[in-house]
Amino acid sequence: MGIPRNNWFGFGIVRRKLSRPSPRETGIVLDTNNTSTGSYDEAKTGSSSECNMNAGSDFFSREDLAATTIQAFFRGHLAKRAFRALKSLIKLQAVVRGMLVRRQARIALHCMHALARLQITIRARQLLSYNE
Predict the structure, then answer these.
(1) Where is the chain membrane-spanning (predicted)?
(2) Span 95-110, pLDDT tens digits
């Protein structure tokens, strides 16, 4: 029917993008040492220099955050503009409906006056023919 609560104006997409790291910030650990000097244990525990290279970068870059903010504001701007257009369309619709209702009321009143005049003339003829 409507937009789900967690995806209102596309903020669910922004939330999902902010919660996962970008592909360029993920670190790749290459174990090139074939000797058994404990490099596997170091890579597993995260004490090697290759693994600590991107350990603290679980956030987005400044450009990603700026792009997300700009997109959010632009989508908000588009939503406000669409809402204003819809609001003005509803006002125009109300004006047109008001004009149609007034025209219909004027026609109904005119018909009622015509029926009342017709009824008066018929009653007058009945009274004249009854008296004769």
Answers:
(1) none
(2) 999 999 999 999 999 9
